[in-house]
Fold:
Amino acid sequence: MIQTLLIVGIIYVAALVFFSLRARKTAVQGSKGYLFAGANLGAVLGLFTFAATLFSTFTLLGMPDFFRQHGIGAWIFLAVADMMMVFGIIWVGHQLRKKAQQKGFNGMAGLMSHCFRSPLAGYITFGGAFIFLIPYVAIQIRGVAIFFDGAFPHTLPIWAWALIMVGVMLLYSETGGLKAIIYSDTLQGILLLLAIWLIGANCLGELGGLEAMFQEVGKVNEALLSTPGPKGLFTFQFFLATFIAIGTIPYTQPQVSTRLIIMKDQRALKRMAVGMGAFAILVILPTLFVGMYGAVLYPDLSTQDFLSKALVQDQPQLLAAVVIIGLFAAAISTADSQIFALGSELRSLLKGEDRRLLTVAKVAIFIFAMLAYIFSLFSSDELVMLARTSFAGTSLMAPMIFAAIYTSSPPARWLLWATLVAQLLFIGSLLGWVPNHLGALRLDLALFTALAAIAVLASRAQSGKQQDTPAQVQKAEEAD
Structure:
């Protein structure tokens, strides 16, 4: 196993080195080339980098265990919600790109500052991304660390596995920039699909096929075959809040919105969105097979032990090695995209000489990675629920962002203060300081509904005022 793993690992590292050197050689000079890969992304690379950023440790490790514990309702939780996101990319993506072209794009935080003509909008956008993406990055690090600890017990402690991953991630992203990350994403997307389908097919075969799988699961726990599931998780409110949280990811999480904006043209964007929908179904379906396999054979094992057996010990040697490297690649792909995006967002809030700001962004990327590493040492092993919390937190910025990109004049600024209050209330609920329900309504759903109503009112209040003259608009844009 070790020998096979070393061979596969050396091939993967060699590919990373090649992509990094190629990215440095072909990159456009300056921050535009380093942070935005020259803003000329085609449909194929766009598909893989978008998909790899979304589907990673959360999918390969989290979803099988989520299916095992909560049942087939997990399909609605993620696959149906992802289809909604695809329609959102096509529906809203054009408007977001149009607004970014009008205002100039250095990051979503900077774009919101320009749209609202207020630095507060940028601070809220960056703050929301920072608070909810650092834990999401920690999920990737934590997931890989506990998996390696289970697959290779007594080799290294969890903190050492996590540190190795952060080191590789920083070395790669700091060297080659976003273009190197995009190339890595392409490799990771192919590895992820290959590995998860080989494992899924093997698990399905062990259960005797699709029909036999459901029969065996029903014998173990009938509640796994329907909603709300054995633990009562999949309620209507949970699904609705999840659809909103996942559907708004392309506009509220900067690592994803940046990829929409740097697509070469609208045609490439639409092709990427359709391909992403197909990729979502293909990558989630085999995790159902692995999860049901675990529900039948390993219903009482811990998450770590179940994943170690299902993904490594029960698989052929070569496949297990591909899974381990694929998992490592998946985690790096998502984590470095998010950390890199936070560095870009911080840069978009600053003014000054381009080279100095680029240096600031690189230092910030290192600091953010270290913060995520520290958080990973204390985070929970419930990867899917932690990811969903991250999605829900960033989704609270969606009404503010939609109001900004769909109005010609800046929306009323009290929308910004309402968004800030909502974020603080949601954080308070996570810390146990604020109830997580408002009467019978989930707090995240209640906050989003309130913000959506406030966004409509804020947009109408501004549109009811006298519109700026062309000279006033030009003056404001020059000030921006």
About this structure: The chain has a mean pLDDT of 83. The longest strand covers residues 437-438. The domain at 2-396 is CATH 1.20.1730.10 (Sodium/glucose cotransporter).
